Predict the 3D structure of the following.
Amino acid sequence: MTPTAPPPRLAAPPEALDDDPPVRVVMSPLGPVEVPSAMRVATALEQLRRLDGGHLVTRRHGQVRAVAEVDLLRHVLEAGARPARLLDPVGDLARPVSLVGPDLRRSAAAELMLAREDAVLVVAVDGEPCGLLDARTVLHSVARERR
């Protein structure tokens, strides 16, 4: 009986094997959801629920901003019995965020998040958002490597 050769293995892309991959490899696969800054909080919460996302991206005076689902919920809950806060525009709650290029390394992105106390970075190409990178995504990418 002759031993059979193992099946050929496919080569992984080099960036998938990198200990410190570029953010384009680990950023949110759905990319950011950009919404008009005039969108109402209620509509934004519904959109986040439907997309199972954590952040929305908007622009105010040309500046890219992001708002987290938790910030939208906090805004509504702090109002107590005043449901009018559901009608507030998302642009009023969104915070300026750092834009990073898709080739920035994961470690550099994590350092930037810590230094600026940013919960999320927007990955952009030529100033146009194409992905999101938050602390949870970074942690998940590190944990997957350790398996």
